[in-house]
């Protein structure tokens, strides 16, 4: 992995997104804290992985970054500019440099438009280049994602899932983004196609120097792609650090359990195999103290009372656990 | 695929028309004696026999049927029994009035309904939405004749601003067109709303936002064309209601169109005229539904390929 050490491209601070609750006393107490105080940064050209179970707030975080969802509180700073205070129209224009790739590529394409028109649309919307050169640009983009030029005249129902995801990637590339938020971009694809799309994303990053926020529940793909990784649980980041550090020496019991659940990726120093029991609690009523204590095999009495903070343990490795040091040894 | 697809549709349409012809023939012959209705039950036997012969009613049923099919194939629908004019002439006189009323109310209802549906969908669960949906329920659950009479009472009798019967001026068109159009507007508003809401939930709508498309473009460029597919299905079905609705509304407002002509023809057992009108209505329905099928292939690219047609 290449060494990237520059000023952050994206700085997310104390981001919160709550749903419901505010408008009516009937709903009081039913606030869903989808994202609770999330902070991280992404450097130019790097991949920041976000992993967690469904409902942990990783998708909501991604949607807020690209402006599809408005944060309840917190700040999003992109390339030195604060985005949360922008009007909808300003945000729409600024969005150019930030694109998103979706989970289900076939439904992310308008069934009534040819691939050419879909890839061309962002170019028209943001007035990129000279209009009659845009079709040539479309061909160029198709080539960049290894799609045959003949695909341009197909409709979404005439191409495969893998081809559709390549088209979606080409559509995002057209605006020459600095950051692409990839929300589970390969989880709807067949395994063999997954590998090829993953390789394409890596290849494009090397050639164009884009940064990715890579959201996934698949720890193996995140390990392969990410320079740094954050693990989310019930709207909070519980562990964040360089991918190598986090996977080699996970310091949060939740991360340890997730990694132990991957058959061939269990940490080699594990004392015993831990598996997660049950489903995550509802974000409408998160457990007291440490949100994870209800499922943590390490939980002690104090965990239910005192909420741990995200703190640094050795270099850039941060953990939200009272007893992280015990794993570090 | 297109040619064979439409060839099949056309063959099916011709078969349907034949069924309509046969069915009306059978139904009319079973439902009473037209000569009695024409000359009255006091008429001398010789007069009755004369008319029977004149209209070919003395011949065996199958012979009447075959000769009827034959002349229809040649475009001859026979003479109206009550005023001795060719049935086609009577239809040609009434048709422009019906088309005027039908087109104005259908197109008006479709436009108004689609606009209301879009407005409701964009304001989902807000007061605007609830207001539009209340209107829609009112529109399609109110029987035509009842709404027509209410409007007539209010605007013609009470306020005395609009004429209540006839088709002499453009003013005469307003009340019947509103009566008929309200029904369509209500139906289309409801279907447009739900079709738009469904489409707006799709990921490509989120994708359109993510790539920076403004709302107007998202609605009219991405959402509406995709929502048009289910709306079009309802348009096809509602064309049938247009015929039924016209019959009622034309009778209420004494509008000299096909609907009123048909009601008169049925009452006086005017075989030739009833059959001619029913066949004309059937052919119109076939043609409009063929047109709807054809528009599908324009609106939905998935219909253009055989694989898509199956899916």
TrEMBL record, chain B:
- Superkingdom of this protein's organism: Bacteria
Give the record's family classification. Answer: Belongs to the binding-protein-dependent transport system permease family.
Which classification does the entry list for the species?
A: Bacteria, Pseudomonadati, Pseudomonadota, Alphaproteobacteria, Hyphomicrobiales
State the protein's name: ABC transporter permease
Topology within the bilayer? Multi-pass membrane protein
Transmembrane stretches in the record are 12-30, 103-123, 135-159, 171-192, 219-237, 243-263, 275-299
Q: Which residues form the ABC transmembrane type-1 domain?
A: 95-296
Q: What is its main location?
A: membrane
Entries under Pfam families matching the protein: BPD_transp_1, BPD_transp_1_N
Any idea which UniProt keywords this protein has?
Cell membrane, Membrane, Transmembrane, Transmembrane helix, Transport
Q: InterPro entries from the xrefs?
A: BPD_transp_1_N, MetI-like, MetI-like_sf
* Cellular localisation: Cell membrane
